[in-house]
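Hey, resending since the last one bounced:
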Amino acid sequence: MASKKQTWKQKLEKESSPKVKHIEKRFVDIPENSDMLVATPKIFEDYLKKIKPGTEIPIKKVRQDLAKKFKADNTCPVTTGLFLRIVAEANYEKLQMGVNINEIAPFWRVIDLKSSIAKKLSFPLDFIREMREKEGLID
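The C-alpha cells again:
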C-alpha cells in the first residue's frame, strides 16, 4: 500500500527535536571541527513569528541566531533551506484556509524573491512580492 503524502502542515508539526552535531570536515560554509545545529521546522516558524513588520533578516543571520541560541557554531544550511520552505508552504496553506495574515509566520521577511528557496515554492511568488512591498522590503 502506497503511503499517503504528508501535507506541509503535517511536515511542520511533525514531532522532532533539534540536534547539535560535531562535524569533523568542512560542510558548505561551515568550517571543520564545528558544532552544527540541525533545528526543526517549528523552531524556524517560532523565530519568524518574532520578526517585526518592515524588518528583513538575511537567512545567514537566522542561522547564526539559532546556532547561538542552541550553543552551536552554526546552523546547517541544507536543513535551513528545507525547513524554511516547509514553514513558508505550511503558512501559505493556513492563509488559503482563512487564517488571518497576522497569525501566520511572516516568511517573506526572510525569504526574498531571488533566494533559491523562493524558486522552489509551490505558490505564486507574487504573494511574497506583495507582502515585501507592503512592508517596504523591496528586492
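The chain has a mean pLDDT of 94.

Sorry for the duplicate.
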